[in-house]
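Quick one, C-alpha cells below:
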C-alpha cells in the first residue's frame, strides 16, 4: 500500500482523506496559498508524519516520494505558538514531527550590494522568498559549531539553509556597529540581520 493510503492508527481520518481536503482547499496551480493562519479547527491528534532534517517527508516510516504530494501538504503547514507544527484544514488540525525546519533553502540570488542588496531564496519545495523585515534571517550555532541560517518563509515556518548555501551566505556578511558592538551582519531589502558579535566569529566552525 502506498504511504499516502495507510491509516495512522490513532483514530484520525486516513491520510488519503486529508490529501483530498488539502487538494480541494489549495485549488491547484495558479491560486494563492490557503489562509491557514485564519483557521481555528479542533485538534484531532497526531499522525505519524515527520519532516527529517534533510527535508525529506515520511509517513509511518515510509518516505513520501511524490514531490507534488509533499508540495501539497506544505501548503497547509502551520507552526503555532506552542512550537509544534500542524497540517491544518478548516475542519481539523493534526500534529506532525519536524526534526529541524520544515523547509530547506537550496538556492540564493543576490541583487545589488551594500544597503541596496537583496537576497532572494528558493526552497526545496519551490517557495521563492526575499529576506526582508517580514521574512527575516536568523542565525543559530549547530552542535558542531557551524552556522545555521534560517529564513522565515511564511507565518512561523522557516527554511534552513543547506551547508553549501550557508557558505555563500556567510561570504556576503559585513561588519556593522549594532548597539555599540562590532557585529557580523547580513543585509537584504533594507533590513539588517545580525549574525553574531565580531569577537565571537573566530570561534565559529567552518
Amino acid at each position: 500500500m502506498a504511504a499516502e493510503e495507510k491509516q495512522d492508527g490513532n483514530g484520525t481520518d486516513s491520510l488519503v482523506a486529508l490529501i483530498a481536503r488539502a487538494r480541494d482547499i489549495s485549488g491547484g496551480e495558479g491560486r494563492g496559498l490557503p489562509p491557514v493562519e485564519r483557521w481555528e479547527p479542533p485538534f484531532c491528534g497526531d499522525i505519524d508524519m515527520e519532516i527529517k532534517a534533510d527535508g525529506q517527508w515520511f509517513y509511518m516510516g515510509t518516505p513520501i516520494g511524490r514531490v507534488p504530494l509533499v508540495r501539497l501538504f506544505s501548503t497547509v503547514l502551520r507552526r503555532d505558538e506552542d512550537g509544534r507544527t500542524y497540517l491544518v484544514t478548516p475542519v481539523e488540525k493534526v500534529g506532525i514531527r519536524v526534526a529541524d525546519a520544515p523547509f530547506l533553502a537550496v538556492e540564493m540570488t543576490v541583487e545589488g550590494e551594500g544597503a541596496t542588496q537583496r537576497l532572494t531564496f528558493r526552497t526545496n519545495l519551490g517557495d521563492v522568498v526575499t529576506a526582508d523585515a517580514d521574512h527575516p534571517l536568523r542565525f543559530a550555532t549547530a552542535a558542531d559549531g557551524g552556522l545555521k541560517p534560517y529564513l522565515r518563509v511564511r507565518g512561523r515556518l522557516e527554511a534552513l539553509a543547506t551547508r553549501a548555501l550557508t557558505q555563500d551566505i556567510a561570504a556576503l556578511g559585513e561588519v556593522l556597529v549594532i548597539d555599540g558592538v562590532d557585529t557580523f551582519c547580513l543585509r537584504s531589502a533594507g533590513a539588517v540581520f545580525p549574525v553574531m558579535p565580531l569577537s565571537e566569529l573566530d570561534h565559529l566552525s567552518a
